């Protein structure tokens, strides 16, 4: 008995190494430079919401961000012992490491250990993976759930017991609760079963599991539809969107993209089949193509697409590339000696070519904004008791993420703080009350998003329009500080009140007022998704 156990353990060692090594590499890459010293706006939302009480989070989800509800509750538990930027991003690092291991496990199960090793390592060194591994958002965890669900599908398709299908359905449901766009994973899995021509019993079991997932997701979908204004900032897709996603999946370096696509083409040859019930191409191809294709197509008419929403589909690409490499290695005139090591060296070369991109991605200025820099500038310029006006209200995110720089200031427009109001940025006073508050001031600091300093911007909310009108008519700029994503500008009351021209009509700026340069944002951003 002992001898048989030792033999089984020795036989499984290559499989274990093939799964463990990519996870370790991904963990190392994810931990490298994890503390950037700054959060950007989406991470700041996670940070400030997760530190609220559970009743306050539940209150928030009734008005905004229901799609991230489960993630916020998870991060509430993660940040409770010691809130900080490393703790904020650590779940994403762990999720990315788990995904790399799961991609490898899929390659091992569908083909052989070296295919799993190559696929897992290639996933780990892809710049898109490294980016989301260091984001304090849910996308790396969604990718882990999608890869895990795909592995469970492969196992369940070979089983006659209901247990694997229960595990599959539960995993897909949990993944979709982390982000509802993961629901497209069911379409990819349906395509997999169709390509593999599985028997009717497999279709019945999958349909039952998928139906349960849909029923679980119905309440979330209904609530999120009422909050659809959160994605109003998205634009329609075109060919450029697909080309950009292709570059992100394969790596933007052309020296990587061309061989990558050639290997994928080799994997799709009819002879390149796996040893299981579901061949590798039938699993990987729908995973990498169906969710992006569906969302890109729909978003051509109703914008819903962003690359992060289909990040989980990336797992299929390295599987296809590794299967293509396996096809090439086994069909050369002479068998390639040390094929495993050759494949690992090839992935190492890919990593070296894309290392500059990974290094750049760890700099705070690679994100749309740097809220730590904004808070530091506010700490230098503002004094306790200074009146501050945030334009628009979402500019308050720097003060919520890094309150030290704004400690002691008077938030002129704020009526109810964000946690108590069940909103992301708080409720502001009505236009009449805000006008009375501003009329009593001789000076005020304006903290503005870049688009709010441009005269072409015309807000829809009455409170935001009043802020613009009062600043234009009653105050003149005295000094200005510009940081990535935000402008701080000190205004003082006009010596003699002269009505300003209507907003939109050009007017030369006072000599002491510098024009705000182009910010990180080209247009008003929507709330984070």
Task: Characterize the structure shown.
By secondary structure, the chain is an alpha/beta fold. The chain is 57% helix and 7% strand. The chain is elongated, with a radius of gyration of 26 Å. Residues 1-7, 272-276 and 505-529 have low confidence and may be disordered.
> What's the gyration radius in Å?
26 Å
Helical amount? 55-70%
- Nearest-integer average pLDDT: 87
Major sheet:
5 strands, mixed
- Rounded to the nearest angstrom, the distance between the terminal CA atoms is 54 Å
> What spatial form do the alpha-carbon principal axes imply?
elongated
Summing up helix and strand content along with how strands pair, one would put the structural category as alpha/beta
What fraction of residues sit in β-strands?
5-15%
Total strands: 7
Helix and strand element order = HHHHHHHHHHHHHHHHHEHEEHEHEHEE
Number of helices: 21
The spatial strand order of the largest sheet comes to 2-1-5-7-6
Low-confidence stretches: 1-7, 272-276, 505-529
Topology:
Layout: H1 2-31, H2 41-50, H3 54-61, H4 69-79, H5 85-110, H6 113-125, H7 127-132, H8 139-157, H9 163-178, H10 185-196, H11 200-226, H12 239-250, H13 254-267, H14 280-299, H15 316-330, H16 339-361, H17 371-381, E1 387-391, H18 397-401, E2 410-411, E3 414-416, H19 418-421, E4 427-428, H20 431-439, E5 443-448, H21 462-474, E6 475-483, E7 486-493
